[in-house]
Amino acid sequence: MKTVTILTIFALFVGIGPVAAQEKVVVGGSGAMGDAVDLLAKVYKQKNTSEVLEVIPEPMSTTGGIEGTKAGRLTIGIITRSLHDDEKKSGLVYRPMTRIPVVVGVHKSIPVNNLSDSQVCDIFSGKIKSWKDVGGGDGKIVVLGRKKDDNSMEIFREKMACFNQLQLGPDTVLLVRGSEVLDSLNNRPGTVGVTVAGAVMMERPNIKAVAVAAVASALDAVKSGKYKYFNEVGFVTVGEPKGTAKRFVEFVNSSEGEKIFEKFGMAAVR
Fold first, then answer.
1. What is the pTM of this model?
2. Strand partners, 258
3. Helices 243-252 and 255-263 sit at what angle, rounded to 10 degrees?
4. How far apart are CA 145 and CA 154, in angstroms?
5. What mean pLDDT comes out for the span 209-217?
C-alpha cells in the first residue's frame, strides 16, 4: 500500500513537470513617453494581474533604449527614431507607437496664432526682432534655443526648407535642457521656442502652440500627416516580441492604448 502511494505521488510530479520561471518584461529607454508609458503599464497590469511588467523610471535616451535591448537588459526599448540599417541587421525590430507634436511655442500673452514658414525662419535667425512685425503688437522677441540641437529642433531642420541650414540669431538665449525651454516659455512673456507638445506642455498653462503655415498641431492633423512636425516614438525588441511583451505591445496599439495617448496630447500610430 505504501509503495503504491509513493508511486502515485511520483506520477503526479512527473505529470506536472517543472514549474516554469515567471516571465518578466522590462521596458525602458527615451524619456519622451514618461507618464504615458507608466499609465499604459498600470492599466495593462490591472487587466493581467499574473504577468510581470516593469517600467524603468529613469530616462536613458534612444541610444540607451537600443543598447539596453541589444544587451538584454531591456525586453522592450523606447526610441524616438526608426532603426538604422546596421541596427536592423543586428536583429532588432521596430514598431511605431505614437507621434508627439513638435511645435513653435510662445507665451500665451502674445496675440499671434499662426506663422508662415518664412516668418518662423526669420524669427529664429534674428531677422525679425519685434512681435509687431508678425501681427503681435509691440514687444521684443526673445528666441530660446538649446546649446546643442535636440530632436525637436532637428524635426524643423528636416521638414522646413528654410530652417535646414538656419543659424540661430546672435541674441538667442541658449539653454541646456528641453525642460528649461518649456519653463522659460511658461514664465517669460515675449519668448518663442521649438518644443515638444503633449503632457509636458499641458503642465505649463502659459504656453500655446502657434499654427505653422495655417496648420495647427491638432491630433487629427498629426495622425494624418497634414501637420508634419512631430517625433515618432516606437518600441524596439530583439526579434518579434513574444509572450507578455507581445501582448503588451498589442495592448499599446489597441483602441484603449490610443485613448491613453490622447490624454497626454499624443497621436497613436495603429
1. 0.81
2. none
3. 60
4. 12
5. 96
